[in-house]
Amino acid sequence: MQPRNALPRLAAALLAVLLLSCHAERPAARAQAPEQLSETGLYVDSTSGVLAPGVRAFAPQYPLWSDGATKRRWVWLPPGATIDAGDPEAWDFPVGTKFWKEFSFGRRVETRYMERTADGTWLYATYLWPEVGSEALRASDGGVRGHVATALGTRHDVPAVQDCRACHEGHPSRVLGFGALQLADERDPLAPHAEALPADALTLGELLTRGTLAGSPAEILAASRPIEARTERERAALGYLHANCGGCHNARGPLASLGLELEYRREALAPTLRTALGVPSHYRPSGQDAPRRIVAGDPAASVLTHRMGSRFGPTQMPPLGTHALDQDALALVQAWILRDLAPAVALAND
Question: In whole angstroms, what is the distance from residue 285 CA to residue 306 CA?
C-alpha cells in the first residue's frame, strides 16, 4: 500500500518545478548548444585535454552525490565581467558565463554544460564521451537511461535537458555548487565525499581579491564562514543537506509552499532545524499516523532519513540523479539525529 498523500504531493511538487522551468524562461528561439564539446570553449585541444585560456577548475566543499561518480568542474567568466553577489546566497552570473562538470565511472562518461545566453536564460547540454576517442558529442535532449554501469551495481542516467532544468531552476541562482559557502577557503573536514582542491582551483578568496564579485565583501565573507552548528557532525550534516536538498527545498523556489528549508542560511536557528525538527510531514510513511520530518533522537521515525534511505521512485530523495544509496551521508544524518538532537531541542511550534 502506498503512503497516504505521498504520490499526489510528490507529483504536484515535481510538476510545479517542471512547469515553472518550462514557462518562466521561454524565449522565441532558444539557443542551441554546439554538437561537439570541443566547440564549447573548454579545451584548447580536446585530445590533449589542455584547458582553454581563462577556464578555471573549482570544487564545492559539499559535493552533490551522484552514485559514486568522480567529477571535475570548470568555469569560464567573460573577461572583465563581474558576478552580482548582492545576494550573497544567490549569485547572478554575467551573460557568457560557462560551466562544465565531467562525470567518470572508471572512465570519462559525460560532461555537462551550462551557458548564460544573451537573453539571460541558461542553456543546458550534455556531451557523451566514447570508450575510445577524444571527442565528446552532444546527447539527445531526452537524455540516455542506464547509459553505463556504476561500481555500486546501478546504471547511470544521462539527464534530459528537462531534468537539468528541474534541478537547476528550483533556486534563484541557477548554478549549484558555486557560491560563498561552497567556494570557501576554509573547508569542512567532515564533509561527505569531500574532494581535494584541484591545482590552481578558483576559490572565494581569489574571486574577492580579483574584484570579480560585486556586492558587500563583508556580507560575502560572512556567508562563507563555516556553518554555525553545535557539533562538527551537525555542521557536516547541515552542509550535506544544503548541497543535496537545498537546491529545491528552499524558501524562494517553486517548492517554497512546502515550508521545508534545507538550504543553509545564517539565522538564529538554522532553517533545517526550524522547518524540520518536530514539524509534521506532508509525506506519510505506511504505519505512521503523525509523521514528523525529523524526530529528535529517533532517526528511524524521521521522514527525512526515510526518504534519503529509499530508492523507490516516488519515495526517494533526491528524486533525480541517483539510483544508489549514499550510505555515508545517510549514516551521518542518522547519527546527527540520534546523538545531537536531544528531545529538549524540539521547537515550540510542535
Answer: 8
